[in-house]
Amino acid sequence: MKKALVCVILLFFLAGCTFGQPTNGFIDAEVIKVIDGDTIKVRVNGKEETVRLLLIDTPETVHPTKPVQPFGVEASNFTKEKLTGKDVQLEMDVGERDKYGRVLAYVYIDNTMVNEQLLEKGLARVAYVYEPNTKYVDEFYEIQKNAMEQEIGIWSIENYATEDGFVEEAVGAEKKAEVEKTNQACKIKGNINSAGEKIYHTESSPSYKITKPEEMFCSEKEAIAAGYRPVKDK
Asked: What is the DSSP letter of 26?
């Protein structure tokens, strides 16, 4: 009797650890928000989850202690245009989550893997290669090699993308000025209030300084396209 009870409890525990029930090896999900080039929020079976694209790393755009990095906006915009509001399929590797609790996955839309597309366009580097999640690492390195040889995206700046991350010191004055211009232009704050409303704040908004952004936008048109409305002036 005790042995049977233990088995039941173990089966219940294992079931609770499963992120989703795959169909033909894939898990259907709806993208509800793109955080940056390599991180998205999805809805699976009515539950929201943060998904980190496996084996790649894009330059930062929303890091709390780092400035927007070269090609970070391009990577983020690519993922936003590709995935925002879309139905996608998630393919898992062996390990399901990282230490932050984020789901680790290869993300597909229209039978095309977005992880690979970011590498192809030079908007991401192969990174965070940890066993046992290495299913496509050889293919990814080959794609990265092609992007490097073409010197596109992050590979157009010598010594910028390395095995240890993106090196700010390698960015020339001209590119720094271009990135800084982008940083200055993207000042509109997008915030989600307690009622779940998406509201954007321009610098002229009374509560702009105290508003903690969920994401930043370069224009009101961009904020509206992402589902945000302007704050109501008091």
From this structure: B
